[in-house]
Amino acid sequence: MTRGRPVLFVAMALLLVTAVGLEILRDRRYGEPRPAAQSILYVRSGDFLKRASLSNASLLADLYWIRAIQHYGGGRRSKDPGERYEMLYPLLDITTTLDPKFTIAYRFGAVFLTEKPPGGPGRPDQAIALLQKGLRHDPRKWQYEHDLGFVYYWSLQDYRKAAEAFRAAADVPGAPWWLRSLAGIVAVQGGDRDTSRRLWLQIYESADNEWLRDNAQLRLAQLTALDRIDYLEAMVSEVARRIGSRPTSWADVIRAGRLLRPPLDPAGTPFVLDPQTGRVNVSADSKLYPLPTEPAARLGRAPS
Amino acid sequence: MRVIRTIAVNVFRESVRDKVLYNLVLFAVLLILASYLIGQLTAGQDMKIIKDLGLSATSIFGLFIAVFIGIGLVWKEVERRSIYSLQAKPITRVDFLLGKYAGLVLTLLVNVAVMAAALYAVLGAMTLFGSPALTAGLDAPALDPRLLVAIGLIFVELALVTALALFFSTFSSPMLSAVFTFGLYVVGQFNADLKHFEQVVSSPAAAWLARALYYLLPNLAPFDIKAQVVHGQPVAAGYVAMTVGYAVVYIAFVLLASVVVFTRRDFK
């Protein structure tokens, strides 16, 4: 038996190689097996899962958190709008029920939920519900009030509620001093772009997490893109006046001597010029797409 | 005392020789190391997840070791008929039982210690070689010494489960012992529900019975302080001391029950 062992090992290796070879051949000929068309959330009750996990609820919360991130990332890549993000809130809800102190799940979750389509589900109502759940579990977390303020400010443009939330955050013992001035600025100046820039700059400088800092950097880049769009739209109008017709592409603006090459957004992707309206926007391929809706733009006025 | 120590050391040696035990330890260590990879899937929660995974793995693998080795401690001796040769030696049944228990607890102690060391090693390696962002904004320090308190309570809980497994092993088959021990483990996680049973039933007798069961059955939920430790929340020293005290007394009770059953058992 001992002498025959090498033969057995060789036979085992051969069998395994043959099995793998057959699998590759089958996949090439008949196509690779496709994952289930839709993700399924078998259990929707966080309370049940908490009990079923015995004493491992925290670990289960981590697994659901990873699932939430994968679902969000998958949604951003998905081509089918029907399958996008529909499980995001239930996954975050289960995660935070399993581990009510999971700060990042509330904070990142709120950011994911408020992100406008196609980058997210665009559900500030769910983000508010999630953050309020966090506050119920830990009222001393000024960060949740602060994030609530952001949701009201950035997604709902409700500056009164945003200022209230920032003020409530400032009232929490141990909260940073700048929250109070932030509340004042938001209450007085509302949704002006400089206020937005100040808010995101504050986040960028105070974030203790790389992901939150990156997100703030992206928002700041979007605000810079909005500044450049204002400048470019003014330029397009001026060229239109000069040549007597609206430029249909950047080539017309370049020919008019106002640009040397197609302008790039802060992410390095060329801006898009709409030949019908003369409006400028970031490309759908840009990391900055979609740009935030500004209150002035929503009212049909040119942004300040 | 010397006899108990000799039996305990033998149980430990037998466990170390047992390939299943080695596999479990290796698997637990690998799992903790693999958690580093799992951490890569998340957005800045690597340390928390590794702590959760490390603590849960220690608890789960320890539970399997406690139950599957504990249930065979006495049964194996009876099945192999080696209990007869032991009876001829100057070893009392009490020494035999206590030695077996101490041996498995020693095995668990070594296992838990290896798992704890592996967890700290992974956390230490991440702190040293990972990006500074990994340790930024954590609720608790990466190499938090309080993790040892959580691990300590896991060990004490496992010692209690081992006593239960040994108790069932004195009169039942391994299969039934495993079912009973796992059953009590699960009940032990939920028995706080029994205390407030009057909220779901109207019968005072049923509520009284449920409350009695709450006090009689092992209460294992208080041993779980994993979430508090991972989130850096304080755990009172008095709480830990009282929980350990409860475990010591309950273990003594279960071992005494095991001695009563085992000394009455007829092997002829």
Write the layout of secondary structure elements.
The complex is a heterodimer of chains A (304) and B (268).
Chain A (H helix, E strand, L loop, with lengths): L4 H26 L15 H7 L4 H21 L10 H11 L4 H12 L9 H14 L4 H14 L3 H13 L6 H12 L3 H14 L3 H34 L6 H6 L16 E2 L6 E2 L13 H4 L6
Antiparallel strand pairs in A: 1-2
Helix pairs in contact in A: 2-4, 3-4, 4-5, 4-6, 5-6, 5-7, 6-7, 7-8, 8-9, 10-11
Chain B lengths: L1 H16 L1 H21 L6 H25 L2 H7 L2 H6 L5 H37 L17 H23 L4 H17 L1 H4 L8 H13 L9 H5 L6 H28 L4
3D structure, described in words:
The complex is a heterodimer of chains A (304) and B (268). Chain A is mainly α and 304 residues long. Chain A folds into 2 domains: 46-218, Tetratricopeptide repeat domain (Serine Threonine Protein Phosphatase 5, Tetratricopeptide repeat, Alpha Horseshoe); 225-298, no CATH class. Helices cover 62% and strands 1% of the residues of chain A. In chain A, strand 1 and strand 2 (280-281) form a beta hairpin. The termini of chain A are far apart. Chain B has one domain (2-264). Helix content of chain B is 75%, strand content 0%. Chain B has 12 helices and no strands. Chain B is globular, with a radius of gyration of 21 Å. The model of chain B has no long low-confidence stretch (mean pLDDT 85). At the A-B interface, helix 3 and helix 5 of A face helix 3, helix 8 and helix 11 of B.
Q: Notable features of this structure?
A:
heterodimer, A: 304 residues, mainly alpha, Serine Threonine Protein Phosphatase 5, Tetratricopeptide repeat, 2 domains, two-stranded antiparallel sheet, 13 helices, 62% helix, 1% strand, disordered C terminus, B: 268 residues, 12 helices, globular
If classified by CATH, what would the architecture of the largest domain in chain A be?
A: Alpha Horseshoe
From the alpha carbons, calculate the radius of gyration of chain A and give it in angstroms.
26 Å
Radius of gyration of chain B, CA atoms, in whole angstroms: 21 Å
Reported by name, the CATH topology of the largest domain in chain A is: Serine Threonine Protein Phosphatase 5, Tetratricopeptide repeat
The number of distinct β-strands of chain B equals 0
How many β-strand runs of chain A? 2
Q: What's the mean pLDDT score of chain B? A: 85
What does the main sheet of chain B amount to?
none
Helicity level of chain A, as a percent range? 55-70%
- Runs of chain B in which pLDDT lies below 50 for 5 or more consecutive residues are none
Q: Tell me the distance between the termini of chain B.
A: 27 Å
As for the number of domains of chain A, it is 2
The percentage of residues in β strands of chain A lies in under 5%
Which two protein chains have the largest interface (Cβ within 8 Å of the partner's Cβ), and how many residues from each?
Answer: A-B, 22 and 32 residues
Number of helices of chain B: 12
Q: Multimeric state of these chains?
A: heterodimer
- pLDDT < 50 stretches of chain A: 296-304
SS-based structural class of chain B? mainly alpha
